[in-house]
Amino acid sequence: MTVQAKICGINTPDAMQAAIDGGASYVGLVFYPPSPRAVTGADARALAKMVPASVKKVGLFVDIDDDQLSNILKQVPLDILQLHGKETPDRVAALKTTTGLPVMKAIHIEASEDFSAIDQYSDIADQILFDAKAPKDMKNALPGGNAISFDWGLFANRPWQENWMLSGGLNTDNIADAARISGTRAVDVSSGVESAPGTKDTKLIAAFLETVLALP
Fold first, then answer.
1. N or C, which end of the chain is more exposed by having fewer CB within 10 Å?
2. What is the pTM of this model?
3. Cα-flanking dihedrals φ and ψ of residue 16, to 5°?
């Protein structure tokens, strides 16, 4: 079984095509205006039309309200909701019910005790994404895409469910070690395939996907 890859924060047709051509299993569209990777509903709709049925379209949201989410879903045919904010288990369950879509819930990790949050979400969320927790003194920190990683060794001897994804500071140079140490079978990258914040580099996307798909 190969390691699956998600290219997140896609905001141009060139980047979307590079992700599809490179073999990404997931493509991520960011609906969080403070992010340099954010897209409008109209832009996301055009990008989504490029995506074949074999690739899952993931919408990243941060504590979005019902009206805003409904408006986006009317424009963009998403396959998965990625919740990257402080959404409670009840909120996750409610969004699954109202939208009929599976939910990927992000849990931010810095130390081993942060993994305890999985107990609240593992029976509700369809997928868990582990991302690095931004340091408290980090300026202009985002809920994700901060180009920082956490200690992958924290996964040692933990009986995690199969349906989870690793994120946080991943790039072509460290992805092999990250997958080997953590044991993940799915990875998420954003800043690691950019030439500048919010600017995807098609060559970096291709190189990352080539490296991931060659992993044992």
1. N
2. 0.93
3. -65, -45
Q: Tell me the one-letter amino acid at 21.
A: D
The yes/no answer on whether domain 4-213 falls in CATH 3.60.10.10 is no
- CA nearest 202: which of 31, 72, 24, 57? 24
Asked whether the beta carbons of 119 and 89 are under 8 A apart, the reply is: no
Segment 31-73, tens digit of pLDDT = 999 999 999 999 999 999 999 999 999 999 999 999 999 999 9
Q: How far apart are the first and last CA of the chain?
A: 8
Q: Among residues 199, 183, 182, 184, which one has the least CA distance to residue 6? A: 184
Ranges of each domain in the chain:
4-213
Amino acid (one-letter) located at 30:
V
